[in-house]
Write a structure and sequence with these properties.
Chain lengths: ~300, ~300, ~350
């Protein structure tokens, strides 16, 4: 078990390093120097900025300066909004994104699991067919299309829910729904097939032969075994949802990290893009790591002898 | 019924029935095709995709304007106005032409990215699986490390670095996309290698290339086909996603994703600008997924009836 | 047959499966009885309907696609086929226990063995967890698992195959049921472990006076454990008798085939093995006459046209074969030496 965690943590650290390095490469690779767009920069200011960014030093040293700064948590200054640091942007917008993200993940996962169980227990009947429909829609129709549909019909035509911004509970309903639908679809589908698999297993027959009630069998024997592998897709889905927030926030005008990210891409604010990329990338790796460790804790087969499937 | 004395005349064993072959035997491919044909959803999906492809080739020629002809007198026209079947966009360009031009771009990005993935992934995974031992270990280690990288983030970085163009889009999308394919192929190759019939064929004197052609490939190809069918919509989705964050195909070219992203901005006033490309994306992705499902079921040897 | 002593009385049990290829008649009118504390074996090839019969007694087969067309299963005065699911749940585990073939897959991988034993105790005896745990410990010791305290807290994947089967037995017997049904309990185990499990079952039977139905295709195991034997073929019982009747004076050609096909360690090295030629009939369309007719050396015209009745050979021994009809040619029970010198 310890070996499992160590392995995962090390891999995560390496990945974070790679991501932040790539983010740095990104800035270097942009043609021209940071001041190409600045037509009227006083030479003294320019020299000061050059020194700050170490642009007069060899690349390797620049890399070192960058990594040093990053390790101290300093992700640099915005190019476009000269007085804002990337850190400030993150501090302002990350909580909003985290809020949106967490709601979506919790909603997506629980509804997905629930739907999957319902479908498996009612194989070939209504709930099963319904869940297949949901699965098909959720997997095929991208979140931005769903957002558009929701915005148009629910928001504008029916005036049921607010179409933009993030000011209260009603504001969260459509974005969370749009963002989580894909997750609901895949989780439900996977949970359903796992449940169907488990229901046919011998140990379920043993449980039945013990005279246990249907509820006890479903809860202790079926769900417990079916859900384990489904948790493994939580990791990738968290990543998906985090990146999904970029688009959703733009569409719903939610002042989260994603919106600033898209904004900075559009305004060619390279340092911000780079800094946010490093941040988001690391976030992703971190979340996947946490899920992996959690899975290791829950599956007795890994917990006890450290073996993974 | 009365029992008579002659009922007890001796007859003995009659094993003719048990030697009968119950059904005509089909090859793997015949059986798979038969199963696929039965799957109405998959066949419908296939038909839809064929229609989309045909329209993407023929569509832009069906109207008199090209996808980039602007007409500033007739911007954001509703469908039907001025002869424009599905209206015009903010610069007065005909939406029908743009839609099918976009189809060309989206579909080809999808297919090309999937093809790259197919080739690179299959070769990499094939070599790794076939070689086995240390080589296999090392190659898979590399895959493991690369797989942890967040794909979308990397795609964004690459797009920023190399600018926006058709080629960089494809490159960016493919760079990590081939990893799952490599894993699948390697897994299949390993599985097949272990199977006894490979040993049997070897014993009968089959050399390596015959082994590969007749035994390895037919068994590995099933999952490859299925995965490719699923990676096309995935690539289309990626491209659309990139369009939404401003890293998509540059103007005046269009893809379904960029058309949708543009249309999104004026959703309330001019819904038709978003509707058509969004509809196309959804239908295409839906069809690829249904087809992929159908292929997966048809090619799964365990479901042979 | 002592009526007061009958624990289980199965009469004319008929079970079919509705598949989309048609109806499979898996069990076609099976009747037998079991006395308290008695051990019987049901033998037959794969597909003869023995597992379906056993699982139907416990009503473990999901009801579509299975369908009980006829028959009754009397247990302690109640017809198990007619009671409600709730009532059945209170009988399963507490009055009838069952163990299955594959110990690797028959235990829940995500629950400790101790908890799996406690589950029945808590449900049927209404005891609290602590008391159940004590009882579970006793059960593990009873089935000869060393280091029982430690083992209770472990998960099934930490047990070996033989130990898992012992654990299964512990679970099945935890509430001291009157009947234990063992569906091919040793088939998935090594020969040496097999012997241990059989011995364990024998000891437990004596100690707890549990009746046992042992389902198997292995005649060696039957000889050790059973007092009476039921031979099944193609969904029907073809012969019933006590252990000596079946092994030394059986009357049905199928039974002869089974006995002949058992290889003997003391056989002539160059002797052949004697499998039964042919394959069992298709249960989608069972034959009109005797199910074994096509493979039977002594098959007669009437065998193909009509199902044989049961003929009594002596008290407690009967067989369903036209050879036993007064008008049929007399055939002696062959000697079974399996090619021994």
């Amino acid at each position: 078990m310890g070996k499992y965690i160590l392995n995962r943590v090390l891999t995560a650290l390496v990945t974070v390093w790679i991501v932040t390095s790539l983010a740095w490469v990104m800035i270097q690779a942009i043609p021209g120097d940071p001041f190409t767009n600045e037509k009227r920069v006083i030479p003294e200011v320019r020299a000061a900025m050059e020194r700050y960014y170490g642009l007069d030093k060899p690349l390797v040293v620049q890399y070192g300066i960058y990594m040093g700064r990053v390790l101290h948590g300093n992700l640099g200054l915005s190019f476009v909004y000269k007085t804002t640091t990337v850190n400030e942007i993150i501090a302002r917008s990350f909580p909003v994104s985290a809020d949106l993200g967490m709601r979506s993940i919790v909603f997506g996962f629980s509804v997905g699991i629930f739907l999957g169980i319902l479908a498996a227990l009612n194989h070939n009947k209504f709930w099963d067919k319904f869940s297949i429909l949901v699965a098909v829609i959720g997997v095929s129709i991208p979140a931005f299309v769903i957002s558009a549909v929701l915005q148009y019909f629910v928001g504008v035509k029916l005036h049921l829910l607010p179409v933009a911004q993030w000011k209260g509970f009603e504001y969260t309903i459509m974005p969370v729904f749009a963002l989580s639908l894909g997750m609901i679809a895949q989780v439900a589908r996977y949970m359903r097939s796992q449940m169907l698999d488990v229901i046919g297993q011998d140990y379920v027959k043993t449980a039945k032969a013990k005279g246990l009630s249907q509820i006890a069998i479903v809860w202790r024997h079926e769900i417990r075994n079916a859900i384990l592998p489904v948790i493994t897709i939580l990791g990738p889905w968290i990543a998906f949802i985090i990146t999904g927030t970029f688009v959703i926030e733009s569409i719903f005008a939610i002042p989260g990290l994603g919106k600033y990210y898209v904004n900075s891409i559009n305004t060619q604010d390279f340092t911000v893009v780079s800094g946010l990329t490093a941040f988001v990338g690391s976030m992703l790796v971190f979340c996947t790591l946490v899920v992996d460790i959690l899975y290791g804790l829950i599956d007795p087969r890994i917990r006890i002898d450290g073996s993974s499937k | 019924m009365e029992i008579q004395k002659n009922d007890f005349t001796h007859i003995g064993k009659d094993l003719s029935k048990s030697q009968q072959i119950v059904r005509p035997s089909l090859t793997y491919w015949q059986d798979a095709w038969r199963r696929l044909k039965k799957n109405k959803t998959a066949i419908t999906a296939l038909i839809i995709l064929i229609v989309l492809i045909i329209l993407s080739i023929v569509g832009p020629y069906m109207v008199q304007w090209s996808y980039s002809d602007q007409n500033l007198q007739l911007t954001t026209a509703k469908p039907g106005v001025g002869g424009h079947w599905i209206g015009t966009d903010g610069l007065g360009r005909d939406m029908w032409a743009r839609l099918w031009m976009g189809a060309r771009i989206s579909l080809s990005i999808g297919i090309i990215a999937a093809s790259i993935e197919l080739v690179v992934g299959t070769i990499y995974g094939g070599i790794s699986g076939f070689a086995g031992g240390m080589t296999d270990n090392l190659m898979m280690r590399l895959v493991d490390v690369l797989m942890v990288l967040p794909e979308l983030v990397l795609v964004i970085i690459l797009s920023m670095i190399f600018g926006r163009s058709f080629l960089t889009l494809i490159a960016a999308i493919s760079v990590l996309h081939w990893l799952p394919m490599a894993r699948i192929v390697r897994g299949q190759v390993l599985q097949v290698k272990e199977q006894e019939f490979v040993l049997a064929a070897r014993t009968l004197g089959a050399n390596s290339s015959r082994l590969i052609m007749k035994h390895l490939i037919p068994n590995v190809i099933g999952p490859i086909i299925v995965r490719t069918t699923f990676s096309i919509p995935s690539a289309i989705f990626f491209e659309a996603f990139l369009s939404y964050i401003g890293l998509g195909i540059p103007q005046p070219l269009a893809s379904w994703g960029s058309l949708a992203a543009d249309g999104q901005k004026t959703l309330i006033a001019h819904p038709h600008l978003l509707f058509y490309p969004a509809f196309c994306i959804s239908i295409a992705m839906l069809s690829f997924n249904m087809l992929g499902d159908g292929l997966r079921d048809a090619l799964d040897p365990r479901l042979r009836k | 047959m002592d009526c007061k002593n009958i624990l289980l009385d199965v009469k004319d049990l008929t079970v079919s499966f509705d598949t989309y290829a048609g109806e499979v008649q898996a069990v076609r009118g099976v009747s037998f009885y079991l006395e308290k504390g008695e051990a019987i074996a049901i033998v037959g090839e794969s597909g003869c309907g023995k597992s379906v019969t056993a699982q139907s007694i416990m009503r473990l087969i999901p009801s579509p696609p299975s369908r009980v067309k006829k028959g009754s299963v009397e247990f302690n005065g109640k017809d198990l086929l007619k009671i409600t699911e709730r009532e059945m749940q209170s009988i399963r585990g507490s009055e009838i226990g069952m163990i299955f073939q594959d110990p690797m897959t028959s235990l829940n991988p995500t629950m400790t063995v101790g908890n799996q034993i406690c589950e029945s105790l808590i449900k049927h005896r209404g005891v609290k967890k602590a008391e159940a745990w004590e009882e579970a410990l006793k059960m593990l010791k009873l089935v000869n698992i060393p280091n029982a305290e430690k083992r209770l807290k472990q998960y099934p994947h930490e047990f070996s195959g033989g130990m898992r089967q012992r654990a299964m037995i512990a679970i099945a017997l935890s509430c001291n049921p009157k009947l234990l049904i063992a569906d091919e309990p040793t088939t998935a185990l090594d020969v040496t472990i097999q012997a241990q499990i059989i011995e364990l079952m024998q000891d437990l039977q004596k100690e707890l006076n549990t009746a046992i139905i042992l389902i198997t295709h292995d005649l060696g195991v039957v000889a050790d454990m059973a007092q009476r034997v039921v031979v099944m073929y193609a969904g029907k019982i073809v012969e019933v008798g006590d252990i000596n009747d079946i092994f030394y004076s059986s009357k049905h050609p199928y039974t002869w085939g089974l006995l002949k096909s058992v290889p003997r360690l003391d056989a002539d090295q160059k002797g052949e093995l004697f499998p039964i030629d042919g394959t069992p009939p298709d249960l989608f369309a069972p034959p009109v006459g005797c199910g074994f007719a096509a493979r039977c050396e002594w098959c007669m015209k009437i065998c193909k046209e009509k199902q044989p009745d049961y003929y009594d050979v002596k008290e407690g021994h009967k067989a369903a074969c036209w050879l036993l009809h007064p008008d049929a040619p007399k055939v002696e029970t062959p000697k079974f030496d399996g090619g021994a010198k």
